[in-house]
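Appendix B. Raw example, untouched.
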Amino acid sequence: MSSKREIFISVDVETAGPIPGEFSLLSIGACDVDDESKWFSIELKPINNNADPRALEVTGLSLEELAERGSDPTVAMKAFADWALALAGHDASLVFVGFNAPFDWSFINYYFHRFTGVNPFGFAALDIKALYMGATGSTWSDTRSSQISKHLSPTRQGDHDALHDAKYQAELFRLVRALGGRAVS
């Protein structure tokens, strides 16, 4: 059993399409689940011109504009890693928290490995939808954010801004974690 503290980091991404490598990671929002004043946000230059028009419509982001103002992916991922590792210090481990974590994780993991060579989260990714399903005994179809929000009544809602959504997800995670009513030591 590890004696390291665990730092849960809520991460949300906006992308140009459904899979990394073929489509670009466009923005990252992240916050410490237990202290949202500790947050990170960055927009990235696209790695190619591939885009699903529906993805861009949802995000409101433009590949052309991000090519001008976005950060180079290597710089962006190094900044994200530095921010996350500074939160952990030497006595904590990082846990990636996402809402539909497999999607967000796939982009973050790909970009970390491609542009920095290492993912500071390792393989520690926690999915809020799966956690909710386990905590409530719900069906998978009941893990949509609209369904979870009806049950848990968060004060925030998602809006496809990566940082706003990361903070919304952090709130959902805290509410789901509280359903268990006990802390893990």
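End of appendix B.
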